[in-house]
Amino acid sequence: MEDLLDIGGKLIANRLFIGTGKFSSYALMRSALESARAQIVTVALRRVDAGSKTENILDYIPKQCVIMLNTSGARNADEAVRIARLARAISPASNWVKIEVIRDNKYLLPDNLETLKATEILSQEGFAVFPYMSPDLSMAKRMMDAGAACVMPLGSPIGSNRGIKTRELVEIMAREVKIPVIVDAGLGSPSEACECMELGCAAVLVNTAIAIAGDPVNMAKAFSDAVGAGRRAYLAGLASDSKQANPSSPLTGFLR
Amino acid sequence: MIIKINGRDEIIAEKLKLSALVESKELSSEKIVIEHNFAIIPKEKWQGITLQVNDQVEIIGFMGGG
Question: What is the nearest CA distance from B59 to chain A, expressed in angstroms?
């Protein structure tokens, strides 16, 4: 049976979500999304300046992708709600929103309380809400009660490529929270994405590590493969570890 | 008269419609959303809004982001 992620009213086969920032061109971004066979991509909102004939990112996102708006730039719940409503006005079909409420410009760490408030409001308005949060089990449960489609704990600060520094807390969340746990932010290499999946996370979201890699198209595929491998390992059930050796070849006695 | 567009003061003609403003800026209406004095205005209503002095207009579209 195919292993699908049931989230936000969709069944998703590819558990690598990809952010669309920082690519050197939209054409390169599209190639990376295609190479990874991405199904979920994030985008942001910006002011469109007069006379700007810049390309439209929506033209470069493969048709099968679900577009998830992020509320980056929001400093409180009200701003996140405002951004989400604006996005839905442009693209009524996409009601997936990643809540990102940040007041800390040095580490870009999220404000969990404001994120919770925005999650409550937007869930009631029919959005599929993906809250980006600092890993915290109690807060994750509150997010779930508020109607969140999943929780998105950070691995390490946004764009830092430092990996899953929050491993213990994320593992606890993956075990205890009844909605999908998706690691977002800070994953720098495919092995780190794989590690998240082995821990039981439902998916990961990667942007910087792909977008600024030497070859983003190949890196996107590498992440996708790693996520698939980690998921398969989780489903297979990792073997237990031990401080002592356990022979894997028979120690027959004929040499003694 | 002066209104604020995307946070900047701009001089526009008197009695300019919101729809005419969008046209003058050569923006594709499919890919943007407009907030007029903090209210989202659906495309079909742009024609019915006459801009007033000190109005605030935000013209918003999608961009890359993680």
Answer: 6
Averaged pLDDT, A60-77: 94
What is this model's ipTM? Answer: 0.88
- CB spacing of A46 vs B63 below 8 angstroms: yes
In a domain, B22, yes or no: yes
Q: Residues of A with CB below 8 A from B64's CB?
A: 19-23, 26, 29, 43-44, 57
Element (H, E) at A214: none
In which residue are the tokens 């442009």 written? A90
**Across the strands, what pairs with B50?**
B17
Q: List, for residues B19-65, the tens digit of each pLDDT value.
A: 999 888 888 777 889 999 999 999 899 999 999 999 999 999 889 99
- Domain containing residue B19: 2-61
Number of domains forming the structure of chain B: 1
Pairing mode, strands B39-41 and B8-11: unpaired
Query: Rounded to whole angstroms, how far apart are CA atoms A173 and A66?
Result: 25
- C-alpha distances (whole Å) from B18 to each of A26, A144, A213, B29, B31 are 30, 41, 43, 12, 16
Residue B66 in any domain: the answer is no
Give the global pTM. 0.89
Given a cut of 70, whether residue A54 has pLDDT beyond it is: no
CATH number of the domain where residue B11 is located: 3.10.20.30
